[in-house]
Amino acid sequence: MRRWFLINIINKENPIKTKTDYFEYVLISLFPILALYDCLPAISIGQLILLIMIIIRILKHKLYSKINFKILTVMLMLMIINLFVGISRYPDLTNTINNTVAMLIFTFLACFICSSSYLDKEKLYKIAKLIGIVTTLFLFYQFISYYFFDTVVKGDIKFLNPIEKEFISIEYGRPTSFFFEPAHYAIYVAPIYAVSLVKRETFFSLLLLLGMILSTSSTGLVIALAIPILIFFNPSKNTFAKRLIILITIIIISMVLAYTFNFSATPFEKISIANLRENVRVFGTIDYFNFFDTKEWLFGVGINRLKEFILINHGLHVANYANSYLFSIFSFGLIGGVIWILYNIALYKNVLLEYKSLYYILIMISISDQILFNRNLFYLLIWIHMFSEKDE
Q1: Lowest mean pLDDT segment, chosen from 20-34, 66-80, 143-157, 277-291
Q2: Once rounded to an integer, what is the mean pLDDT over residues 45-69?
Q3: In whole angstroms, what separates CA 79 from the centre of its chain?
Q4: How many CB atoms neighbour CB 110 within 10 A?
Q5: Cβ contacts of residue 86 below 8 Å, gap of 6+?
Q6: Sign (positive or negative) of CA dihedral 253, 254, 256, 262
Q7: Does 11 score more than 50 pLDDT?
Q8: pLDDT of 280 over the 80 cut
């Protein structure tokens, strides 16, 4: 059932149906890049631009807008848990306030933009495709400069101040395009790659495929392999047994490729069974649950507070990191973690059948990376909701 958020009840029209200008799609498509740069406290340039865009849009349409109530409900519950844990556990409320504000900004952006009624599929894909080409060609340029001319070419925007002092992977032969890490480039082009495969745009798909391979990102390599299989042998149309066969096929091909292509041996080694158990991006942080009592199991230690919690209570230095699903449990306990996981499961049913691969991309990245509640998660949710059958 469609639910409407009406601030000005006098206005009976539905101006949200009006197609947004291409300029808005440029800003949305550039968000993952612009969000790498600092602006105001707790707000990146990318976030500020989208916040202004949303406010202008609301005012332009006489304060009438439609929001994603499912995202709003889920995020409100998680923010309440985060505040409860922060206030009850940590004397200094600075981190609690900062982290909650960051969640609030994410919630505001996601509520207004992650909606199939807000976005035009073809317009966003067209703009994102263009930017995807530019980022990939620049990655080729970085690769060629490093390996053929022994020259390091970074992808940072020189006159802006990056949030993190990164862009250094290319110094070790790992091109990142305009992103901090190779994985961030792979995350950016992954939805574009999936849609291009559905649309049978072969040359463009191969271009992005080559980009993900040359980036040496494990995330990119897995996506590059798995998505074509999931699209052309759509498990949504098959039995559970066939879905299992597809999953096993992906694993077998991954292991075969690990021993076949020498140039990608290092990233493929990252997805070996032993490494998955030790890697903090996957299952390497499960042992942290040994430090949890009943209260932590129920409500967690607060978002981005894992390192702080273990240091204060057990005197150990650990990484403030885990894959997104484990991190949701670390942060919000079983209560909040289950809420977030159930929301992820609920996303599946609304994604258009031929674009289910967009959902699988979210799952694969969440299993292998910490994206709560950052620019990468927001970007992926845009694509999922854009290709959904109905607004949520």
Answers
A1: 277-291
A2: 85
A3: 19
A4: 22
A5: 93, 95, 96, 97, 99, 100, 302, 305
A6: positive
A7: no
A8: no
